[in-house]
Amino acid sequence: xxxxxxxxxxxxxxxxxxxxxxxxxxxxxxxxxxxxxxxxxxxxxxxxxxxxxxxxxxxxxxxxxxxxxxxxxxxxxxxxxxxxxxxxxxxxxxxxxxxxxxxxxxxxxxxxxxxxxxxxxxxxxxxxxxxxxxxxxxxxxxxxxxxxxxxxxxxxxxxxxxxxxxxxxxxxxxxxxxxxxxxxxxxxxxxxxxxxxxxxxxxxxxxxxxxxxxxxxxxxxxxxxxxxxxxxxxxxxxxxxxxxxxxxxxxxxxxxxxxxxxxxxxxxxxxxxxxxxxxxxxxxxxxxxxxxxxxxxxxxxxxxxxxxxxxxxxxxxxxxxxxxxxxxxxxxxxxxxxxxxxxxxxxxxxxxxxxxxxxxxxxxxxxxxxxxxxx
Length: 375
Prior knowledge:
Elements: E1 15-16, H1 21-24, E2 49-53, E3 60-68, E4 71-78, E5 83-90, E6 93-96, E7 105-114, E8 117-124, E9 132-138, E10 143-145, E11 154-161, E12 167-175, E13 178-187, E14 190-193, E15 203-211, E16 214-220, E17 222-226, E18 231-233, E19 243-252, E20 255-264, E21 267-275, E22 280-282, E23 284-285, E24 290-298, E25 301-312, E26 315-325, E27 329-332, E28 341-349, E29 352-360, E30 366-374
Parallel strand pairs: 23-27
Antiparallel strand pairs: 1-26, 2-30, 3-4, 4-5, 5-6, 7-8, 8-9, 9-10, 11-12, 12-13, 13-14, 15-16, 16-17, 17-18, 19-20, 20-21, 21-22, 24-25, 25-26, 26-27, 28-29, 29-30
C-alpha cells in the first residue's frame, strides 16, 4: 500500500494546471503486451458491485487493508492527532483498535499471518530529527510494539509474510552512514538484513515472497529479485526513477504482476507489468492519467487500484481509480465512489474485494474510506 511514491502527487488536493499536468489528461499508456496470458484464456468476470462500509468519524487516511476469513485490518494515520490508526473488521463493522503509539507516527502496511498473528509497519517520528522503522504485532488480544532494526534512521513501508511464516519488511534505512533501500526478515526475534544489491536504490515499496531464496522487491526505482544471497535488478524495468513499482501480486512463480507509476515527460501514468517466469513485459493501460498503488488477484486476474487525475476548471484533482485486466489490457472497472480521493489498497478474501484509502469531504478534510465489492 500503501502510500508508495506519495511525493509524486498531492493526493486529494487540487493542483493548478502547469508543470505538464494538462498534457497528461490526453495521454495514454499504449505499450503492446506480450508474454502475458492470451485474451482467449480469460473469461469475462462479473461486474463489481460496491458497498461502502462506515469507518470512524475523524480526519484520517488509510494506507492498507488486509482481510482473512471474515476478519479484516486497515491501517493508516489519524491526521489530527498525528498517530497510527488501526481499524478492525468483525461482526460486520469497523472498530478502532487501541495501539501503543500515542503520537508522531504512521502505519503504512499490514499483513495477516493468522487470527492471532498480525503485523503492521510504518514510521515513528518521535525524534523529529530522525524517523525510525515502526513495527507493531497483534497477538489476538492487543497490539504491542516490536523493536525494529537498530538503525540510526529509517522507515518501513511494506510488510509481507513468507510461505514459512517469516515476516519480511521493506523500506529505507541509514546503513553504515548511507541511506538506501532495505529489506529485513524477522526470525527468532532478530531482524536479519537482506540488503546486498540494494545499496544504490532509494526505497523498497513492495514485496512478494515465494521462498527464502525467491523474492521480489519493487523499488524507487526499479525491480529486483532475491536469490537467497543478494538482490539483482532486472533489466526490463528502468532504474532511472521513471518507473516506480508500488505493489506485486503473485499467482505463481511464472505468473506475477506489478503495478505502479511511470513518470513520463507529460506527467504520471499508471504502470503495469507481468512476469511469465522468463522476463517482465509491459502491459497496456488504456486511457488513464494517474497512478496505481496496489494490486490483488480476483479469480487469478489482477485488479489494481489507485487514483486518476481529472481536470475541473483550471485545476486537476485526484479521484479513485479501479482497473482490471481483461486478457490483453487493463481497463476501467466500477469504482466504489466518485468522490475526490484515492484508493491506496486492495485485497481479496473469499468472494469479496476490499479497497481502502481516503476521500475528501466538502470542507476539504481527509476521511478514511473502505468498501467491499461482490460479483
